Amino acid sequence: MKAKDVMIKSPPTLSPDNKIKDAIDTYINHQVNCIPILNDDNYPIGILTNTRVFESLKSNSTIQTPIRKVMETNIETINESTSVKKLYNYPIGRLLILNQQGQFSGIVTKINLIKTVHEKLGEKEGELSALLESMSNGVISIDSKGLITICSQKLKEKLGVKGQVIGKGIDELFPELNLKEIINQNGFITEKREINNNRFIINKSVVRKEQTPIGAVAVFQCISRIENLVNELKIVKELNSELEAVIDLSYDGIIVTDKEKVLRVNQGFERITGVKSKELIGKQISDLELITPQLELVEKIHERKEPITVMQEINGDNKVYITGKPVLDDERKVTKIIFNLRDMTELNNLKEVVEETKSLNRRYHSELEELRSKQLDFDNIIAESTKMKEVLQRVRRVSTVEATVLITGKSGVGKGMITKLIHKLSDRANKPFIEVNCGAIPANLLESELFGYESGSFTNAKEGGKVGLFEAANNGTLFLDEIGELPLELQVKLLKALEEEKIYPIGSTEPVHVDVRILAATNQNLWNMTEQGEFRRDLFYRLNVLPIEIPPLCQRKEDIAPLIYHFLNNFNQKYNTNKQISEGAWDVLLSYTWSGNIRELKNTIERLVIMVEGDSILSKHLSGILHNEDKQKEQSDLEINRIIPLKEAKQRVEKDLLKLALNGDASTREAAKYLGVHHSTIVRKAQKFGITLNN
Q: Start and end of every PAS domain (predicted)?
């Protein structure tokens, strides 16, 4: 069997001019942990591992750093016709394969060569058993049927599993691991996961025997409690191939010695110490100052015949825990020593990163909950009447598309609630929802609020400019309430923004592209306004793509009783009362016209809960409230005795109604309620007609 028979063919590669960002994308897209680096002649000049990237980013590198500055150039290449047996002599974990033309054709890893382990397991069984007992990693393995064949006790404790698990299905106990899928994928995956309040780095790999997948193994590196070492690992003779995989997958450094010489070194040891394995294999233990400063540790292990752990600094400031585990023969003589090195400096840094990420997640969660608390509870929408159910059915349909929706209806019918429901049911539900009342903002400020402005574009403009509401709602929904109050000069700019999907901030000649869904609402008859020249017809057509008219409360009598119950319960809870409505009061409430719609009904119930003494709301309590409002409407009847131009008549009617609404000591908000408009409209109209407002 040749190298080309076991190599990974055509793996993803990069050039030395690619950036670290390209490497990260490749790791994610192809699920690999190393990438060969090729020159223009398709010849390998280096290799880049994910560990190398992680270390470079912790230093001064960025994701834009060229790969040539961080790649490993100390690589080994072999011809694809090389015998597999010769591959075992190479000390490094990855070999780059060249074809007969001397060009890159594949890569061989230690996992490709696992099948040879069984030939030597007879003499290494005791060595591997002691090795796994000294490791801090948790191990679980399965056979080809997905049945658990080995599971370390420490891993069971970390995962919160009790009782016997050997022979049980992996999907039954740990469905989130997806370990069985590794066998089908025939691959290798590294992932980070939180299980039972412990965070792990999990390396999952297929186990092969003579190139045939016979199971899978997962190695858990616990990073939540570094000081806890993983306890004994149970080993079965039929699973000796998995034990060799554990050695290569271990994140800790491992070195195996006999009484005099170094026998084996893994990649983790090279990473922690910076010393290549080929520089250590066969060397005398007395020469290994990294492990035995004065041979004291080795001497103590031979003397005590038990594991010993010490702390040592390597390469200046890297703190490393070194645990020596003796392998004893039948006469309790030390035949080998297995050393496990854990880099505490790197793991402590990783712990800090994890804690910082947790803190950031908590802050984002808190902000998200705050935003959610501000959203309307859409379960409060009452729809018992046929007309309102038809409205909600139409809402469900329009929420699935991106077209503009125009919501019409009298003041107080719930237009704002419907717009928020459309947004919540749409694909933009997790994107911004921005609401602007076109009648509440003075005309001279509305343009800057909608479109933003550049620094210095006008007097008192903020330094640095301001982002407009269109841009703030990008990728989300913009709700234009009281769209009928939008000045004509702004209607042109709004139409252009809707047609071209871009805006021009005040003082800027550069367009800002926006992706915004528009929802508009009004209590006015926009078509009549277009007939009178007060609203642009082209803008009306652009907004009126999907019209929804919300019927007034007088046309959906079935909703009145459920709404009363709803508001009564809410205000009883809010004011800690237990008010009940008498039968006579029910008759009055159900027969009343409710010209102010839901807003009037809600305010009436709140007033009754607060003002009525005792727990019973009687019909006599309603006479003053409901009768006075009917009387005010009766007094506002107008008399027409001559023909005048329609525009003049409209202005006179507006002026007379405004004076009547502000008669006595009524505030602007009370007048706005009587006339069914926003209080800012009252202020603007009063200024127009020269009417003095009450303090």
A: 231-294
Local structure of residue 660 (DSSP, 8 states):
H
Compute the distance between CA of residue 57 and CA of residue 86 in angstroms, rounded to an integer.
36
Q: Judge whether 640 lies within some domain.
A: no
**161 lies in some domain:** yes
Q: Which amino acid is at 210?
A: E
DSSP state, 111? G
pLDDT confidence of residue 568: 93
| C-alpha to C-alpha distance for 134 and 142, rounded to whole angstroms | 22
Of 470, 479, 396, nearest to 436 by C-alpha is: 479
Would you tell me the crossing angle of helices 583-591 and 560-574 to the nearest 10 degrees? Answer: 120
- Which residues, 6 or more positions from 103, have their beta carbon under 8 angstroms from its beta carbon? 41, 42, 43
Compute the average pLDDT of residues 218-237: 58
Q: Are residues 214 and 237 in the same domain?
A: yes
pLDDT tens, residue by residue, 613-648 = 888 988 888 877 774 444 444 444 455 556 778 877
Q: What is the DSSP letter of 45?
A: E
**Structural contact between residues 478 and 518, judged by C-beta atoms closer than 8 angstroms:** yes
Q: CB-hemisphere CA count at 13 Å for 577?
A: 24
CA distance linking residue 647 with residue 129, whole number of Å: 98
Same domain, 148 and 257: no
Question: Which amino acid appears at position 301 of this protein?
Answer: I
In a domain, residue 300? The reply is yes
Task: Examine the domain organization and report whether 33 and 11 are in the same domain.
Answer: yes
pLDDT for the residue numbered 619: 83
Ranked by mean pLDDT, which of 131-135, 577-581, 590-594 comes out on top?
A: 577-581
254-268 pLDDT, tens digit each = 888 887 788 888 877
Our count of domains for the chain comes to 6
Q: Considering only CA atoms, which of 93, 96, 102 is closest in space to residue 42?
A: 102
Question: Which of residues 127 and 41 earns the better pLDDT score?
Answer: 41
Are 307 and 396 in the same domain? no
State which of 251, 284, 303 marks the end of a domain.
Answer: 251
**Residue found under tokens 């110490």:** 273
Taking the C-alpha atoms of residue 562 and residue 393, their distance in angstroms, rounded to an integer, is: 19
Count of helices and strands (H, E) across the chain = 26, 25
Average confidence (pLDDT) over 310-339: 81
| pLDDT, tens digit (0-9, with 9 covering 90-100), for 343-385 | 777 677 777 788 888 877 777 766 665 454 444 344 557 888 8
- 536 and 573 in a common domain: no
- Choose the final residue of a domain: 213, 232, 251: 251
Q: For residues 167 and 143, what is the distance between their CA atoms, to the nearest angstrom? A: 9
The boundaries of the domain holding residue 151 are 120-251
Question: What does the alpha-carbon distance between residue 605 and residue 619 come to, in Å, rounded to a whole number?
Answer: 13
Report the share of the chain in percent with pLDDT over 70: 83
DSSP 573: H
Do 247 and 306 fall within a single domain?
no
Residue 359 lies in a domain: yes
